[in-house]
Structures are given as structure tokens and as C-alpha cells.
Amino acid sequence: MILKKMIKQNLAIILLSSVALSACAKPTSNPNQNAQTPTTKANLSAEQQKKLQQLLEKTKKNLILVKGGSFMMGDFGPEHSIDKLPYAGGDSSPLHKVTLDDFHLSATKATYADFDVYTDVTGQKKVGVFDEFSIKYRIPTSAAGINWQQARDYCQWLGQQLNLNMDLPTEAQWEYAARNRGQYVLYAT
Q1: 128, exposed or middle or buried, with CB in 10 Å at 0-12, 13-18, 19+?
Q2: pTM of the predicted model, to two decimals?
Q3: 135 close to 129: Cβ distance less than 8 angstroms
Q4: Is the terminal CB of the chain with fewer CB neighbours within 10 Å at N or C?
């Protein structure tokens, strides 16, 4: 019984760790939202429409509800470890209470294949294509190598397509989910 529970917890941790690369979350209100989110082209081919629909269905299927709640965010080592020492260096935030509403995260990473659909239907250049070598050896199922703004634009564009308010998770949302709803997990994933 305990082994089954541990396996379930480990699977949950593995799923949440994959979210780090591509998590899209339903955000709290953010006045600085990007007004330049790319839009889908008006005249998509039948093939583009099919690929877009497949991406949207995959995205909906992979959204995981994270129930909101309150937790102590930051370096909890001094208060909750045997040796009472901090777990991290000078960049760590002191422990402070944070309360979050429910939000969603994607259970899977955003891949180059996902981004290829996005860039194709929005008329952008493919990401992760630098030269002939990168084109030849770019693996479609690998996590897309993108910057923060590209990730945010992608999440917000997906939200527009699904008629959902989507964005990258905040630091608090990510820590809450990675620590299994705020539990004191030393190596949160």
C-alpha cells in the first residue's frame, strides 16, 4: 500500500517536472500582459487546420487542474529541517505565506512539433532552426528551445485559440505545483 502511494507520488513528480519547460497556467490578473500575441492567419489550408485542431485537442487533454490554497513559499530549511540550516544561498527568498486560486498546468512539455504548428499558422519562422545541421537533427518530440517571451506568446496564443486565459505560471504557482501543493519537499521538481 505504501509502495503504491510512493509510486503515485513519484509519477506526479515526474509529470510536474516535465511542466517546467512548457507549463501554461491560468494566471492571476496581470496588467503587463503582452498586447502583441501573434494571431492565427485567416486563410489556413486544410492541413494547417487539421494540425491546429490536433494541437488544441492535445493541449486541452494535457491540462491538469492544480487546486489552489495557501503555502509557505521560499527557503523552508531553517524552520523545517533537523539541522535548522537554510537549503539555498543568498538568492533564496525568506519563507512567506502565499495564497493561490486554482490554476492549470500542462502535463507535458511544448515540443518543436507543437511550436511548428504555432509558427506555421501564425506566419512566423520556425524556432530552433539555425543552419542546415540544426534542421537535419532537430527532433520534433524534443522540448522546444525557446526564450521566455516566445514561451509566453505561445501560451497566450493557445489561450486565445481555446478561449481560455492562459499564461506562463508565476514563480509561486510553479513552486506550489512542484512541491505537491506546497508540501515541504527538499528537491521540488
Answers
A1: middle
A2: 0.70
A3: yes
A4: N
